[in-house]
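FORM 7B: Structural annotation worksheet

SECTION A. Query
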Amino acid sequence: MLASLRKTLVHSHVAAIAIAVLLFVAVDNLFGALAYPVFQATLFIITGIAERELPYIPHHLNGAIYLEYLGSIVGFLHAFVALAGACLISFWSYGENPIRALITLRESLLRNSHA
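SECTION B. Predicted structure
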């Protein structure tokens, strides 16, 4: 009798590996998306402290700044898609959220010794 795809993925731990990789990609994209805004905020604060007054804020943003913020938005979207993929795989195969599924799998692997 053939096993279902879901049971095969759970038994071979392919689903857990896919969930872990997707969560890593989501965190990586989130940090990449936050890099430019955090850098700009840090630069603003350091300039304000150094000059002891509010730094100059231009009234019109140029195209380069728009492209940087567009890159941040795309990074957030990639992080969201990776997190949604991890959630879909986790709920479909384990019936739990991704973090809980990985914790449960880790505990079951530590309990079972195949030696």
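SECTION C. Observations
DSSP finds four helices and no strands in the chain. The radius of gyration is 22 Å.

SECTION D. Sign-off
Analyst initials: ____
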